[in-house]
Specification:
Radius of gyration: 19 Å
Protein name: LON peptidase substrate-binding domain-containing protein
Order of helices and strands: EEHEEEEHHHH
Distance between the termini: 32 Å
Number of strands: 6
Pfam families: LON_substr_bdg
Shape: globular
InterPro entries: Lon_prtase_N, Lon_prtase_N_sf, PUA-like_sf
Organism: Streptomyces doebereineriae
Structural class: alpha+beta
Strand order of the largest sheet: 1-3-4-5-6
Helix content: 25-40%
Number of helices: 5
């Protein structure tokens, strides 16, 4: 078992390998994390782990009215995550490599990172200025029939895109700009579909690529059928996710 200890950045969203993660970092605990990452030489990866929050707050209450009028201010690296932070997070996350860490004049940071490797959360340490975690790296197994499944998922995904965009009369694109490597397809589709966090988390922690693709094929067919029966639907940009408030 290969383990690694990395800074931990909990979010209200799921990061997948290969996907870009923009962050607006303003809380002191995460600013301290970014200051530490900046000490890493530019030629080396500046890595931290992202986990989805199961029970807790992405932004800790810092003052009455922030984020609500009844908020009780909390301090420290585990603020908002209870007495045992590991229970507040989903067990599988993703390592992020911060290609850009830019400090602003006010001490906040603009960060652009990319998901790289899935990891399992083993323990969380809240003794420092920010959370760190011991993590087990998870291999990506192909599973049976991942190639044909990826082709089916891509076809279903293009139909899903077409329905979401309201382009019912247009000819489907050939998909030449989409990847064909099964694991890449599985993560791209998981990130691009309009799904809730628990469903995305289920896709992230699938035991292998084929299992993830099978699940996605069912989801795509079900979602496309629902959209087809809607009277109207506003256009959506599938490839862009929201920037984290943290």
């Amino acid at each position: 078992m290969t383990t690694v200890r990395l800074p931990l950045f909990p979010l209200n969203s799921v990061l997948f390998p290969g996907l870009v993660l923009p962050l607006n970092v303003f809380e002191e605990r995460y600013r301290a994390m970014m200051r530490e990452l900046l000490k890493t030489p530019e030629e080396e990866p500046r890595r931290f782990a992202v986990v989805a929050i199961r029970d807790g707050h992405e932004v800790a209450p810092s003052a009455p009215g922030l984020p609500d009028q009844t908020a009780v201010p909390e301090r420290g690296p585990a603020a908002g995550f209870g007495d045992d932070p590991v229970k507040a997070f989903h067990a599988v996350g993703c390592v992020a490599d911060a290609a850009t860490v830019r400090e602003r004049a006010d001490g906040t940071f603009e960060v652009l990172a990319t998901g790289t490797t899935r990891v399992r959360l083993l323990s969380v340490d809240a003794s420092g200025p920010y959370l760190t975690a011991e993590l087990e790296e998870l291999p990506e197994e192909a599973g049976e029939e991942s190639g044909p499944l990826a082709e089916g998922v891509l076809r279903a995904f293009l139909q899903y895109q077409k329905r979401l965009a309201g382009a019912r009369e247009r000819t489907l694109s050939s998909g030449t700009d989409l990847p064909d490597e099964p694991s890449v397809v599985s993560y791209l589709v998981a990130a691009a579909m309009m799904l809730d966090t628990p469903t995305k988390q289920r896709l992230l922690q699938a035991p292998d690529t084929a299992s993830r693709l099978r699940d996605e094929l069912k989801l795509l067919r079900a979602e496309t059928a629902i959209i087809r029966n809607l009277p109207s639907l506003p256009a959506s940009e599938l490839t862009l996710g929201p920037t984290s408030l943290n």
